[in-house]
Protein 1
Amino acid sequence: MPSKLASYVIGIDVGGTNTDSVILQNESVLAWHKTATTSDIQQGVETAIAAVVKKAATPPCHVDCVKIGTTQFVNAVLEQDASKLDKVAVVRLCGPYSRGSPPFLDFPPRLRALMEGHFGYVDGGYQVDGTPISPLNPHQLREQASIIKIKGITSVVVVGIYSPSNPSQEDEARSILAAELGPGYDISCSSAIGRLGFLERENAGILNASLRRFARHVIAGFSYAVRKLGKCKLYITLNDGTLSKASTAAEYPVRCFSSGPTNSARGAALLARVESAYDSDDSEVLVVDVGGTTTDICALLKTGYPRQSSAFVKIAGVRTNFTIPDVHSIALGGGSICRVDCDRTSVGPDSVGSRLGRDSISFGGNTLTASLLSLSNATDLVFSNKFTDNLVRPSTKSAGLREISRALEEAIDLVKTKQGDAKVILVGGGSIIIGDRIAGVGKIIRPKYLEVANAVGAAIGKVSGTVDKTVVPRGTTIDQELEDAKTLAIERCIAAGGNKRTIELVEVETVPVSYVTNGATRLFVRVVGDLVEGYEEHQGSSQPHLNGDAYRKPTDFSSLRNGIPNDNSLMSKGSSYDIVEQVNLRSYRPRIEGDLWYLSELDLRFLQDGTGVLGVGSCGEPYPVYLACLLALRNGGDIVIRRQDTLPDNAVVLVGGFMGSPSVYLERIPGLNEVTDAMQAAMKASGISTFDAVIPNEIGGMNAFEALLAAHRFNKTTLDTDLVARAYPKVWQTVRCLHGIPITPAAVADGNGQQEIFQTSHDNFEAEDLMRGACTEFGSLSGMCINPIHGIEAKTLPRNSFSHAWSIGRSIALSRSQKLDPISALLKSERGILLFTGKIISVTRNIGSGFTRGSVLLSSLADTSSPSKTRPHTSTSSLLVDFENENLSATLRAPGQADKTLAVCPDLITFLDKANGAPLGISDYKYGLRVSVIALRAPPIWTSEEGLEMGGPKAFGLDVVYKGVGSGEYEAPKSVWEMFGEGK
């Protein structure tokens, strides 16, 4: 529903190159102004306001509000500016959990040095079903306050397990800390900052707390500039395209990090509505924003908002989980530098940026830029001068324009989520470099005021209300819980100044929690609405930083730097890891001493991706336990893998890992005792007092790392094997059970003093049911240990499982470091096949007996880098993948042809991020993700008659005849000893 603003509204976007401003009335542009961004940001905003008011001939007192989008907060982090960042104390409400993965551990070294002040653990937190892990302990909180005082830290963030579902403990803890610390301390709560995902929310909370002092200075400066208009309200635009009161933005600057692309998309949607109002087709709408240095492309939803990214986000190397628009950026802009090498013309990736008027040939400089290619034949005398006439040859111009078209068309194809021609709204001051024909685009709209679409988007910003919580229905249904969440979101929107009559629902997501039997479901709801006419923000004594003397011009604004650094990788959707140290990956050799392999930090990173590929969509993100392993190494400990084939026959091996929900694992971060308690209980049940090594139940995902960590904590080794050679959803789907060996005796433990031992069971099916029932009682996540193994049996298990995962991860890392396609390299090294390259267009999920069953549908993504004969599908085909916690089957669908099964379990079907080769789990499957789906051959044990019965199509109710992928004999993975051992 469009806004009906009677008063004047000013929108401002402070970018790295330009500061744009517009003045609107009833969503009509009255005037606009563009000026270069200066080092004195406050003065720049004052100038922008004065200029646009003058052009509109509007009395300043008639301006109702100013809405500003700014990059200053994210810049402070990207620049790692010590004058703008404070040290932070973190207080976790976690009981016994999360202690193996402390705060700040994975921060880049310099940022960690700037921000890490203190961290402490206290009782508190909630289980997934809402029951407290433990009540708050005021005495523990007062102890933490005393330490914080002694250390002289004034910025504090409180982080509680499942606080987004229930923030009451965080709020109470904040009150206790505030009472103990007294005035002058800044205490925030993570539930107000991030979504579910404990470590990522904590990281966002740390960034936010560190920035708060600086944010108040910035907002106070903006307030000072706006105050000259009279009684005018100030709002700051947020990452999702909605608004925040100025005082709230000062408290939560992290929410404003990435508002620019969203503002641009929102502004483009408004400016183009007249030209697209009579279009009756259902073609996809893309916004292409061409600036001076980069081009941002995003898909526009019917709500007029850009699609949000489903991936976690890295800010200056820090992993966070607040939402940003799903924008694909390329290094192409009006200031992109053009170079001619023989007959080839390249454009970018570097740019003259704001130096266009000084360095460009058209202004007397020496640099050929992309904008000049488009304008060198223009009749405008500004560009028809002796420089352009003499230095830009027609062949150079045509070659450069072809290169611009190629880069843009490839980028648009990556963003499109529908087949057929898209509709493009072209905005941004650099859009003059784009021609009138774009392959794959049926209509190009160049709306009036396209130069300032981002400022228009800021001006039309609305307010929002969100709810992100996990619910367990008790006496209600999920539908009723969802309605309650919608009501709460609306209430929050109204509290933020939203007009109840204009509120609309823009996002709803319900995701069943897998591996639980109590119906737990994650709900996410977002609503938006117009500002209430005449809504006033009350700036009482609770916000002293925006009152009185705070309105005076801050003395340090002249030192604010201009723009975001050129390294766009500093803020990006994250991959599983980034290799930042200077390591020659091709020459790197693992540390092998006899039968022992001592892992390094780089080995752990290889294993992250490798275990993700072998997890075939399940087993959980290993990030928390990866951090725990990282800490063990940095504390001087060893994590050691033992060679499988030399293990003594009488050795005792324990099977350790986790059972339960991967999504719970990412919020109730493991403590120190879940797996070790389960192992000790299983030893007691088995009548053994010691053991020699540990293996995971499955090599996929987090459990491979949990076995490494458990072995380290017992000062033992991990054996280079597992029970599956991949991942399966059931505990009994293992090679051991295939040979008739029972799961029991077994044990589960919650790490908080509760254990349950299962001495015997009628069969392995009953054992699994009993263990999962106990796991649900323990909060849907527990450590697990099953029937111990002797050495003679261990040597018959799947060969070289950790070595295999390491080799896969190394292949992906090598390709990344050499800027090669990691997927092609992986397929070559693993003799796998590419099933499909496409975009996810729908995901369905439901829970049955604790397991997530569903399917994901992909539409074709034309791969212009590969010749058509090598592509496994046509541009009109689609792929349907069924899953039950793990990917089960992949079926090709093409118009006019019968469905064709391309791969089915037990072969390994894995989704990889098309950009960086990172493996994706089923919880990551979201609309619009661009992926490659690959298949690897299963070991012969699983393709035997018995293996297919336990882990093949019929085991999951699929009416499909198994046919293995690839050709030739199966090749067992080599061990690192075979590849890098003595004499290699």
Protein 2
Amino acid sequence: MKEPIYLYWHDALEVAWDIFGNPTFAEHMVYDPYHVYEGAECEYSKWMLGDEAHQIQNELPEGATIVPVILASDKAPVTRMSGDCEMHLLFLTITNINSEVHMKATAHAWACVAYTLIPEFLAHPNFHSILKARMWHRCMDIMCANLKVSSHRGIFMADPHNNTHYCFTPLAAYTTDLPEQLMIACVSKSALPITTAIQSQFGDAKLHNICSTLGKNIDPWKIPEFQVAAKKQYLSGVQLPFWWDWCFSDPVIFLVGKILHACHKWFFDHVLKWCRWVLGDDELDMCYRCQHKYVGTRHFTGHCNVQCTIVAAIAGGADGTFVSAIHAIVDFIYRAQALTFTTSSIEAMEACLAKFHQNKHAIQEAGMQRGRTGNIPHFHILKLELFQSFGRSMHNVGSLIQYMADVSECLLITHCKNLFLRTNHNTNTSLRDVLSAEDATAPHMPSVVSEEYSFSGSTTHCNHFLQGFVSNDATTAFHVTKKPDFTNKQASYLSAMYHLPDLPMLLISTIDNIASQNSPFHS
């Protein structure tokens, strides 16, 4: 390595212990798996409702409590235009806290565990990725060592009410983007992190078997030989992943799909391009420009939200089978974002994905599946293959939307980028200052949260409209147009355009009724 690597970290078990006993979350804690039925079907929403929670509880001693850990990490550049400093940040929370609470960054249910600098090696470039991955897994092994011990032997913890529990700490979920999922699962870019599917099998509409352990009698530190053998098995070359001795923790279970990258980003990278090419950029743009603003209709500007009207926009301008394929995949994406699921709703979601695969040939026949060099005769897309595992993940760990990256992305800014900009930009001293600041503020966090945030009480009436407000009882919505489509137009012009012959007289009558004699409305 060019420079020594310093690991700045807290013991992950101590962090989980502190969150488990935080009195701020006393009214929002769950300690045992349970069932909720919708009719005759089990509901899958929170982790404690999933099949994995009940399976783990059945294997623990009688009276034991599960403290399932959720980890989140991301790679972040902390210097701009100079220094080229990057690091992995690790955040932690527990699923005993209701998902409605820990999904909010302002609830302070997450804690920063470590800053892991990304090293630079004085080795051949072909070996940089395998060395960086091994270094990261070794750092994770150090930080989570006591969590893994307690997952085997258990540990006594006090809850917010000061009741003592005999706790076990499995890894319930790991929230991160797809490149890091591949690094965690120790597989190459040509394989799926949670099944045995490889690139040539992507998009074949089949759910492949889960990953299994593959071993070879090769010294892992003979890196050239080990790397060659690993690539033949579509592995990355990491011989000791941090999770290998973590009880009740399997990457097939805890690596969950991210709605943001797996669905919304995939829609923008593929589905929206197919629609643009089949209609043409100008025609599709005109379809959205012609949409009139109606009261009660939310009008979207971000590319993620174009999904709401994309099917209606291409209907009539594309082949019926093509529209059916787009309709099916958009329906799948929306169903995957639900907060609660049952067996029938999961089957309905999977049926939408199956319908897309049945009709996707229309996309190829129209010549819309393209690459930089021309048409592509297949759908070997990793994220498309990842959709096949959504149903199994929902049965195991509940709804996927509770593991969205919104919280970790927010924490990445507040706990790293903003703090680092206020330091002297010296990596070692800056990180020491940041961790010292967090240690100093940690004891005061419960009082701050309890004063500033309330997790119970009456429901807040939210405004879901573009520009408007709601009545006190939230039963009536009012839409106010601040920037009218037409300015400096006479009432007669508006009357003719919108076919409102009574508009001029009614407008005069309204002004006469509400305006005083000294009002500027009176001429």
Protein 3
Amino acid sequence: MISLLRRTKLLALTLTSNPKTLRPFLRFLSSSSKFPEYEMPSVTWGVVQGRKERLVSRVIISDYLKTIGIIPDELEQVELPSTVEVMRERVEFLQKLGLTIDHINEYPLMLGCSVRKNMIPVLGYLEKIGIHRSKLGEFVVNYPQVLHASVVVELAPVVKFLRGLDVEKQDIGYVLLKYPELLGFKLEGTMSTSVAYLVSIGVSPRDIGPMVTQYPYFLGMRVGTVIKPIVDYLVSLGLPKKVLARMIEKRAYVLGYDFEECIKLNVDCLISFGIRREALASVIAQFPQIIGLPLKAKLSSQQYFFNLKLKIDPDGFARVVEKMPQIVSLNQNVIMKSVDFLLGRGIPAADVAKMVVKCPQLVALPVELMKNSYYFYKSEMGRHVKELVEFPEYFTYSLESRIKPRYRRLQSKGVSCSLDWFLNCSDQRFEERLQADYIEMETVGPSFVMGGKLELPGNEVVSDKEDESDDEELYRRTVSL
């Protein structure tokens, strides 16, 4: 103690007796209180408190927090500032961000963060990477743990990892606002393994970035317990991995559907409504959302509607769902517009039902387009309505780019044929037919599957690419949606 006093006196004598020694010391004292970036809060750094003083300060601060409505119970093991003024500054700083007392009570540990050491550096970095200042309060409410993080050690590496996945720089803030918990993940843990697994099943690495932007939550999913069970199950239903990979690239949110309570339940529901097991893969590829909908209620409602209004029985309804699964979510008023149009053209209700079962896309077509196609059919082509009943797909073809040009080519050649003969083929095949000296024998009409190829009896395939594999066929159905 005596030696400490002697050293203090000696330092004081040296400073006062030697002006050259005093000047830099005074400059340090005067400059240390100036921070150009923000106003430094009043703190008590350097004040050494004894055990008794610390207990007294904690009691005073706890009483202050109680008076403003904050419950301090969770702060018992947290180091608190030594004065009420510092704690008041922390509370007021958070309130200026937009947090309420209720928000603070949901995570009171944020009061253990220093304004200078924690809050300002973290919030400044978040604003720098694209989170608007007006959204910072919302961000802290959703993920208050971020205030404890180190910018250099924890936050910056995660942002660098996202950029490495090809997430656009301007999208980083958007991604983190959607899923702020990403900032708490270890790079070598869940995020890396989920990306590696998806790439291993065929997801293109260059599509990972857009997937993260669309649905960042898959980065936090465990492969073994979440992603892999879903992939394995869908593959077991007949979805090739190549098709499944394309589906996940475009609609990554399917990985977020609950496996037991949603996916498996909806597949069982489809089977119970008459959808054939061999058609499940096609149904899911065309409309992935179907495995995440409240399906039983939707199917029940639509099945009843089809039976009541369109006179289509449950088996016919199942065939409609197989060909166009989006029908489960289609508004019934929209369906009736197309149906009423066909009925208004004098087509019997029973024939309209046959047309819808054969080509469900009819009920989703804009009535105005159907009117134009029908007018051309009657006025220019002069054909009987019966042909439309046999080939309702006529309405699904573009009037300007397919129907008119091909019909005029037929007229110039003096060829008379059925609707499906000149419409239900690729441009190349149509030209080959016109160059031939005969018209092929009429066979049973082709089956129409939304987004896919037209399969003729005898396993012949009418397509722009006649050598496509089954996988590529399903892929075409997926990306066409």
Protein 4
Amino acid sequence: MVRHKPSRFVDDDVVLPVGRSDLRLPSRPYFTKRSARVLLILALVSCALVVFHLGHSTRDDASQYLYLGTMENNSTENRLPPLYESYHDYERHLPQHNLSLPYPEGRDAKFFWAANHVHSSGWGNSMQELLVNALLSHTVNRAFVFDNYTWDPDGPDYSVYNGKLIPSRIPHSAIISGPIIGSSWPPGDPTPRSVSREYFERVCPHPLVIDSYEINKELRLDTSVPASVIFDEWVDRLNSLRDPCVEIKRSSFQIFEIWLFGSSRILSLWPRLSKSPVLHNFSWSPLVLQAYAQNAHLFDSPSRSLSFLPSYLRSSNAAPISPASLHNVEPILTPNQTNPVPGLLALHVRRGDFAAHCAHLAKWAADWNGFNKFAALPDKFRPPPESGRGHTTEENLQLYMKRCFPTIEQITDKVRKVLEEQYSLYGNSRELKRVYVMTNGDQEWLEELKAALMEVKRWDAVVTSRDLSLGWEAKPVAQAVDMLVGQRAQVIIGNGFSSLTSNIVMFRMLRELPPEDTRFW
């Protein structure tokens, strides 16, 4: 059912359409009840002791998002996680948040807000949905309404995950840059710039609300229906609407669900996504790029230049980054500018909670994530027919664990095989010399893995996510640093069941890197 949402605000002179000359949103302080927040944090820390071994059941890459590296300064170890107030405030004051702007923005703008976007899920899952929702909005020439990377949309500022406090909401500008979160579209593009959820809610108190089930009901679980069909149905529907403010009902199913991304159905959207400025103008945030530069000596030759980054983001520059530079949403390093690091082998090795997740996948005969199933890629996977509906055989369980949660021996066997195949293709001209392991494994296990990898070959270095030196604000977004390393690796061995891997693969395919350089367990 389509309906108009009741008003959220009473100041009707700040909604569409109006005639005031400048209606930018005012600043809203985040620390209005500091004492109450401190008490809340103390309560959450107490709860963390109780839930340490319970955690939260969630999808795919959630736990790896949280606190992978070591702190840059030991004095910050006992600090609470950042809440990114300055990033929120920057997003709140984007220049397009102004109703007096000329067409196609200002009072003439049309908006698309997917209030039902995924939350309480890993960054990999959230990112893939974000990209396709933004693609849909751009296709129908509506301003995309972006939110935060969200663990808890309504609760306190902090959540408890696996016994640790994490930010409940991280502004996207701390993780990514580009037109998805408000930079300009390419010259001549008629699409209005993206706006924040706060601005949308301020100027659109009575949006047209659509339940996604109305369109997706017969399509969402039909494995014969490609994602492009669902996408086109939504394009037709949104193009038929004259309402400037369109919102997808928050309690309805996501338009593009994990069932799509978790199958080859999503590949039908690649021809559009791969040509869209949503991807071509995508960039990691200045915060992520700075963290990469500060750790580049771990996975790149010390003599290699970081000239592809602005000087203010390079580790050799001791001057502090200005707020305007740190919060810049303009793309700095687009996928086509992300050149491979010669000699770098990246491994995506999930541990911890992923063991139970992989066993669950076996019981339901799950397939690889769709963007890990490009036909050109050499490694394949087909779910065995004897599994599914909550049951599997021991043989199939071991098959899934080898491809999803490999042992140290299985990891080194795969690395040896890839080295042999690389040598047969290129000889010594593209020798792999360094290893970077993207992981949430514990330190003791990783030391065993490092030693085993050194027995495969005398590498120049073997380092892991745990070896990164990360500042206070960079630590909660460390997974994005890993993803950039994976993008730039000469060769990667990823996890076919992981959305983190699939997002890396998507960028590598966009960059047209050799398919034989993208591998899976």
